[in-house]
Write a structure and sequence with these properties.
Shape: globular
Number of helices: 22
Distance between the termini: 64 Å
Order of helices and strands: HHHHHHHHHHHHHHHHHHHHEHEEHEE
Strand content: 5-15%
Helix content: 55-70%
Strand order of the largest sheet: 2-1-3-5-4
Length: 494
C-alpha cells in the first residue's frame, strides 16, 4: 500500500487510473454472460491444442480461473478484468521506457480511459490474452535491443509465441520485429546476432501445438481465418459503408480525440517516408514497427472489406505511446471527460438495460432461457437440446445447463468447433429434441410459422411450441422460438 501511495504522489494521474479500474470492477457483478464468454469457456472445458476458429489461450485462462474460483459468470468477468489490468501494468512499464514523467501520465490516462479497455475487461475474446502478450513482447524486445540484455530475447520469443497462441494476429509481432531490424540503419546489425534468430526460433516452437492441430485437421483453422477473407478482398469492390463503419467503431474504441490523433501522426510519418524517404529515430521507428502494419494495414482494407472492430487493437499499444508525443494536456483532459460520460451511460445500460439490444450479442436472457428449457425437459425426459446460430445459443446454454447442448451439426450444418468434438451423434438416434432459435428482432410474441428444411430430414416430426419470452426489469426483451422434434436420425459420416 505504501508503494501505491508513493506512486500516486509521484504520478497523480495514477489516481484516475485506479478510479477507472475500480469503476470497472464494481460494474463486473452487473454484467451478464455474453455468448463469447460462454463459447471461449466452452473451449477450456473441451481441451484442444487449437480450435476451429481461434487458438485456445483465452479458453485455457478461463478454465484456470473457473477451476480455482468456481464456474460463475463473475469469475469469467474477473478473469478478463485481471488479465486486462496486467496489460495496463505492462503498458505502463513499456511507456516508461520512452516517455518523460509528464508524457507517461498522459499515456496511462489515454489507454485507461479508452472504451477498448472496458470491452477487454468485460468480454472474453482472444484479444484479452493477445493484448497482454503483445505488450509484454514489445517491452521485452525493447530490453533486448536498446538495453542489450540478451536474456530478454528468450522472454521475447516466448511471449511472441504466446501471442500467436492467443490469436493469429500475433504473427504481426514477428513482422514488426523483422521490419524494424531491416529498416533501422543502427540496428540492422542484429541480422548477424544469434540472439535475434534464437528469439524467432523460440517463438515458432511455442506455436507448434497450434500448427500440429491444424496439420491433423487439414489446416482447418488457418483456412477458416484466411481463405474466405482473401476471396472477399480480392474482389476489390468499394463499399463506403465499410469505411465509415470502421471510422465509427474505431472512434468509439479509442474515443474520437485519440483516434484522430492516431490519424494525424500516421499521416505525418507516412508522408515523411514517402516524400522524403526519411525514417524517424530508432526508438520511434521501433514503436511504428508494431503500429503501422496493424493499424494502417487493416485501415487500408476498410473501403473494400468489413474490418472487425478488434482487429486494430494490438496497434493501440505503441500507438498510444506515439500519440503521447503529439497530444496536448488540454486534449487529454477532454478525452477523460468524454470517457467518463460514455462509461456512465454504459453503466446505466448495463445495470438497468434501458435500450433493448436487437442481437444475440447481449448479456441478458441466457440464464433465464436455460431455466425455461429445463422446465420443458421435465415434461419430455430423455430429450436433448440444440440450436442453429453458429455458437451463441448453444454455448450459453452449455454454460448454464448441466447436460450437453448441441449446435447445428445435429442437422448437418457447419458448426465451428462443435464439428471437432468427436461427438458420436448416432447415440442420439431415436431421441426427441428441443430446437431453440432466437428471434433477434422480436417485434411480437407470435410463433415463427416455419421450420428449417433440414429439420424434416433428420427428424420424423417437428412441432413449433409457444415461444419463450424473457422479461428483464418487467420489460419483455428477448424471444426464442421453440420446436419439439421427434425421433432423431443422425446421418452416418462417409
Amino acid at each position: 500500500m505504501n508503494k501505491i501511495s508513493e506512486l500516486i504522489n509521484k504520478y497523480p494521474a495514477l489516481s484516475i487510473v485506479f478510479a477507472f479500474q475500480a469503476f470497472r470492477f464494481i460494474l463486473l457483478p452487473f454484467m451478464g454472460l455474453m455468448p463469447q464468454d460462454a463459447y471461449y469457456h466452452f473451449y477450456g472445458e473441451n481441451f484442444s491444442w487449437c480450435y476451429f476458429d481461434h487458438p485456445g489461450m483465452i479458453g485455457y485462462l478461463l478454465r484456470i480461473f473457473t477451476l480455482v474460483f468456481g464456474k460463475t459468470v463473475f469469475v469469467i468477468k474477473l478473469a478478463d478484468f485481471v488479465i486486462t489490468s496486467l496489460t495496463l501494468l505492462s503498458f505502463y512499464k513499456l511507456a516508461a521506457c520512452f516517455l518523460s514523467a509528464k508524457r507517461l501520465n498522459s499515456a496511462i490516462l489515454l489507454i485507461t480511459s479508452t472504451f477498448f479497455i472496458s470491452i477487454l475487461s468485460f468480454n472474453s475474446t482472444p484479444d484479452v490474452p493477445l493484448l497482454l502478450f503483445w505488450t509484454l513482447n514489445v517491452l521485452f524486445l525493447y530490453r533486448a535491443i536498446f538495453e542489450r540484455k540478451n536474456s530478454y530475447w528468450i522472454y521475447a520469443g516466448i511471449t511472441m509465441g504466446l501471442a500467436f497462441d492467443s490469436k493469429y494476429t500475433g504473427l504481426l509481432l514477428q513482422i514488426g520485429l523483422i521490419a524494424f531490424v531491416l529498416f533501422s540503419n543502427q540496428y540492422r546489425k542484429l541480422l548477424r546476432s544469434p540472439w535475434f534468430y534464437l528469439s524467432l526460433v523460440i517463438s515458432v516452437l511455442i506455436t507448434i501445438p497450434v500448427w500440429y492441430w491444424n496439420y491433423q485437421n487439414e489446416f482447418a483453422s488457418f483456412l477458416f481465418q484466411s481463405s474466405g477473407r482473401t476471396g472477399s478482398i480480392s474482389k476489390f469492390k468499394f463499399n463506403p459503408k465499410y469505411f465509415f463503419g470502421a471510422l465509427g467503431h474505431q472512434s468509439l474504441l479509442l474515443l474520437p480525440i485519440l483516434f484522430w490523433v492516431f490519424i494525424v501522426f500516421t499521416f505525418k510519418y507516412v508522408k515523411r517516408f514517402v516524400i522524403k524517404f526519411k525514417l524517424p529515430k530508432s526508438k520511434t521507428l521501433f514503436l511504428l514497427a508494431f503500429f503501422i502494419p496493424t493499424f494502417l494495414g487493416f485501415f487500408l482494407l476498410t473501403p473494400i472489406y468489413w474490418v472487425k472492430l478488434n482487429w486494430m487493437m494490438p496497434s493501440y499499444i505503441t500507438g498510444i505511446i506515439l500519440a503521447s508525443y503529439f497530444i496536448s494536456k488540454k486534449l487529454v483532459r477532454y478525452q477523460i471527460i468524454t470517457s467518463i460520460i460514455i462509461h456512465l451511460l454504459v453503466s446505466i445500460q448495463v445495470i438497468f438495460y434501458v435500450v433493448p439490444i436487437k442481437s444475440d450479442d447481449t448479456w441478458v436472457g441466457w440464464k433465464e432461457l436455460a431455466t425455461e428449457i429445463e422446465e420443458l425437459q421435465k415434461e419430455h425426459p430423455n430429450s436433448f437440446v440444440f440450436s442453429n446460430d453458429n455458437y451463441k445459443t448453444s454455448a450459453a446454454l452449455n454454460f448454464f445447463m448441466d447436460e450437453k447442448v448441441y449446435a447445428q451439426n445435429i442437422i448437418g450444418l457447419p458448426a465451428l468447433h462443435f464439428d471437432y468434438l468427436n461427438d458420436d451423434l448416432e447415440v442420439l438416434n431415436g431421441k426427441s429434441a428441443f430446437f431453440i432459435d432466437s428471434d433477434k428482432r422480436f417485434k411480437n410474441e407470435n410463433k415463427n410459422g416455419s421450420i428449417l428444411p433440414e429439420m424434416q430430414t433428420y427428424f420424423e416430426k417437428c412441432t413449433e411450441l409457444s415461444p419463450i419470452i424473457i422479461s428483464i426489469n418487467g420489460k419483455k426483451v428477448r424471444k426464442f422460438w421453440v420446436y419439439y422434434c421427434e425421433n432423431y436420425h443422425a446421418k452416418s459420416k462417409p
